[in-house]
Design goal:
alpha+beta; 7 helices; 8 strands
Length: 218
């Protein structure tokens, strides 16, 4: 599926470009993300998402396919798989930056493929989730860039950045991030999935010698 997002940050395009390429710092604004290693072109890390009562961790890599300093355009290819499960996620992300009235507009196109539990939501819910995640990322990035500007001569940028909210390693709650009607549409599916998990766990713990109807029907 293809997702389109746009956000703005209150700094000139060159400054926004440098900030987005500073993966180790900008990753702190990415909900659920943890960067483990970055060599300048390839990022290794993990992302945690919560689907109702279930938390899923993806671990993988993302590689820059293109970094055009003159055009302020980047293309990133990412691929990951569930740490405990068979689900996978892959994406090609294209971001283009445009300066406007002293600020910067960032247009993001994501070609996303997901298998496993999060894939049950479909394009509508995933689009709402994408909007929510990009919104949180943009707010965090804007706060960091704004905080760094007036205090640049008085303190290091790292110190200023520490006062802003970060995504850290807390799981992204997909239902809460989707919000509103999208969350309600997904709630039934998640409830069924949660019930299946609970029944499976009950079966695993059942020691009734075959008499348990929950475990041995059919």
């Amino acid at each position: 599926m293809q997702l389109q997002n746009t956000f703005t940050v209150p700094v000139p395009v060159d400054e926004a470009w440098r900030a987005l390429l500073d993966i180790e710092h900008v990753s702190q604004c990415m909900p659920g993300a943890t960067v483990e290693e970055f060599d300048g072109d390839t990022v290794k890390g993990s992302v945690k998402v919560r689907v109702g009562p279930i938390t899923v961790t993806y671990r993988g890599t993302a590689t820059f396919l293109e970094k055009d300093d003159a055009a302020h355009r980047m293309v990133l290819s990412a691929r990951g798989s569930e740490v405990r499960g068979q689900g996978t996620a892959s994406a090609t992300v294209t971001a283009a930056l445009t300066g406007h009235d002293g600020g910067t507009t960032v247009s993001v196109t994501t070609d996303l493929t997901v298998t496993g539990r999060p894939a049950q939501f479909g394009r509508g819910v995933m689009s709402d989730v994408s909007d929510g995640l990009v919104g949180r990322f943009a707010d965090c990035l804007a706060q960091r860039l704004s905080a760094a500007q007036p205090s640049a001569s008085a303190q290091p940028a790292d110190d200023a950045a520490d006062t802003s909210p970060t995504g850290g390693a807390e799981p992204v709650d997909l239902l809460r991030t989707a919000g509103g009607p999208a969350a309600r549409r997904a709630a039934g599916t998640v409830a069924v999935a949660a019930l299946a998990v609970l029944l499976a766990r009950r079966c695993c713990r059942c020691r009734c010698g075959g008499a348990c109807r929950t475990c041995h029907t059919g």
